[in-house]
Amino acid sequence: MRHVGPIKICGPVLQESISVPLATYETPLWPSVGRGARVSTLTDGIRCTLIDERMTRSILLEADNATEALLALQSIQSRRDDMQAVVASSSRFAKLIDMHSQVVANLIYLRLEFTTGDASGHNMVTNAADTLFPWLLEQYPQLRYSSISANYCSDKKATAVNGILGRGKYVVAEITIPRALCERRLKTTPEKVVDLNIKKNLIGTMVAGGLRSANAHYANMLLAFYLATGQDAANIIEGSQGIVHAEVRDGDLYFSCTLPNLIMGTVGNGKGIDFVEENLRLLGCKEQREPGANARRLAAICAATVLCGELSLLAAQTNPGELMEAHIKLER
Asked: What angle do CA 80, 296, 114 make, to 5 degrees?
């Protein structure tokens, strides 16, 4: 583990320069993210915008047939306030904010969506769903229990539903890099980065059959950041689904990373380890703030970190031999 940066971050969530801890066996990741971080300090910074936040658990109910399933579902969807009252009996922080559903034959896939304060919320939403189940079965005796998790959540799997409906923190990170800075620090041009993003991240991922992904290596930065800050590392599966977008604007490079499924928290399982607590403190994510504010701050820092690594790698890959030369120099 090393600290990289500082990264200059701006936007509604936070505005400051901050160094980030990254735990990885891929040693070139530190200087690569560091190069992106250095570029950020020479610009107005990386703007991080939180679009949405929610944590989900889908439950599976059974009826005798599709007609009964539909009638029960229509009633359930009209009783969100009643369901929240049940949830509140088991949690101070879980808030039911929405529901989505699919009926397949006689099966009801009910996707429950919550805010969970500063926790990532895996256990919180499962506990909320577990509390709701007896109430649902009492209110709707024509339904039967099938599973507490129905894969429509969708936890630690690459699916379309998370990007479409949201799971975790949805963050967009953006930066504008002057042409001269792009050429001097990244050894490339805005046009080359835009062209490679189209041909590699967009077309290449489409050819490969990627699912709601168009990026070079989100997972590298996410895993390193998750391990250093006590997150459930398996969530990089859905976390690494995201889109890089780049444009040439008045000769400069506009570069952005959209991360719709950042699942992370600043309290809960994994956070009690000494080095994790120290890292979260250094990131300013252990302050006395309104519930959820520390986790939102952490997600913004994570998104900025991903942008730094993504920008550096794409720039390197516009130049023949640069990527392998760096790995040989730093790893062999």
From this structure: 15
Among the listed residues 95, 100, 156, 187, the single catalytic one is 156
Backbone angles phi, psi at 148, to 5 degrees: -75, -20
Q: Are 138 and 184 in a shared domain?
A: no
Please identify, among 86, 114, 147, the residue that sits at the C-terminal boundary of a domain.
Answer: 147
State whether 47 and 71 are in the same domain.
Answer: no
Question: Do 177 and 140 share a structural domain?
Answer: no
Q: What is the mean pLDDT of each run of 10 residues along the chain (332 residues)?
A: 97 95 95 98 98 97 98 97 95 96 98 97 95 97 97 95 94 98 97 98 97 96 98 96 98 98 94 95 95 97 98 95 84 79
- Catalytic site residue from 287, 327, 329, 331: 327
Catalytic residue among 26, 130, 247, 322: 26
Does the predicted TM-score (pTM) go above 0.90? yes
For this structure, is 26 an active site residue?
yes
Name the catalytic one among 232, 252, 277, 322: 232
Whole domain around residue 243: which residue ranges?
2-52+168-331
8 is catalytic: no
Query: 266 in helix, strand or coil?
Result: coil
| Active site annotation includes 232 | yes
Instruction: Specify if 284 maps to a domain.
Output: yes
Residue 157 bears catalytic tag: no
Quick one: 182 and 325 in the same domain?
yes
Do 240 and 183 share a domain, yes or no?
Answer: yes
Per-position DSSP letters for 167-198, written without gaps between them:
-EEEEEEEEEE-HHHHHHHSSS-HHHHHHHII
Domain membership flag for residue 132? yes
Region of 85 on the Ramachandran plot (φ > 0 left; ψ -120 to 50 alpha; else beta): alpha
